[in-house]
Amino acid sequence: MLLCVTASHKTASFELLERLSRTPDDVASTIVDTASCVQGAVVLATCNRFEAYVEMDEPVTAAGAIGVEAVLEAVESATGIATAELDGAYDVHSGRRVAEHLFSVASGLESVVSGEGEIAGQVRRALTSARKDGTTSPELERLFQRASQAQRKVKNVTALGRAGRSLVRLALELADSRIADWSAERVLLVGTGAYAAVTLATLRERGAVNISVYSPSGRAEKFAAKHGIRPVDAEDYARVASRSSLLITCTTATEPVLTPDHLQAPTGIAAPGCPVSAHSQLVVDLGMPRNVDPAVATLEGVALLDLETISLHAPLEELQATDAARSVVREAADTFHVVGSRQSVVPSVVALRSHIFSLLDSEIDRARARGDEDGKVEQALRHLAGVLLHTPTTRAHELAAAGQADEFTAALSTLYGIAPVEPAQPAIMDDAASA
Questions:
Q1: Superfamily of domain 2-164
Q2: Is the pLDDT of residue 18 over 70?
């Protein structure tokens, strides 16, 4: 049984998501160790969501409730966020709904900006991390590999990837109302990771040329040399920040890297209305946890645009996923379910066939002992075995597709006293090999 416990920008406050984003890497291991019926766990923690995908031992009574409790206990143990504080801030998906949800997430359909591409890599890294920690399971492997396949198909056959805008693009579009000439902006980029590179490219698309970069981890000079911009050292950071008209932060730091002290501006109350108009400085915080101290927004002449504000001001019509993308996801989820259902009944079918062929071999041996020299009796017996197996095998797959594989297994036990033959553990494939 697959289970997903998910908290996202749709169910939880950005403040809570910020705290959840600091979840340590060992949460999946904690989930697996919490209950013996937990067979595997993969945790996906991003700036806009926290999700735990769990495989449970389905015959266990109340497996779903046990799985949810294991996730909440692991989160509380790792982050200090009490279970009661999470009430109402998460959703639970189980069974066939899990695949459709993850496939939607991986395709960017559930992101703050529909169609954003960063989440696909985060989904792949979540599986890689679970493999490294030994917390994945065969079914979770299959789930996450198929999620990557579904994401690639959405990207290749629908308009979602072409129409979807990144958080950076959306933030800068919201800034357009106060920027007349991007080439005249004094831009300070704080951060040197992959997201910073995307931000830099987007700034240049808009015409920004006066760009500096600061790195809290000391990588500014290398990043600046690679991209042809100016590095800022720690001693000069506050001075450059206070003189920049546009500051964009996108680091993985767990504490604010930009505070009122850096901007050296007098405290005041920001003007009401549109958050990006009539201000001398615009600060765009793309970090999660927050890179910018919220008190920056109270400084006179400073506008703060963070992830929560971006989601509130995003044009809804442009954030809607296309019908084609949703159709691809639903089709992929249905295929995942059907294939999984068929696989779930295979051990029982194998047990039945093994039982019948064992009886067949005994009868053939007896026929040979009685003088079946031309093999006609053996041929007839093998044909009869095939006929006898055809209907129950077909019926087994029909029951599996309907979610009733257990009924076939129970019938085998009642009629023949035989149990399913568990298949060998499948080899782990990487996403490229499974494409």
A1: Glutamyl-tRNA reductase, N-terminal domain (3.30.460.30)
A2: yes
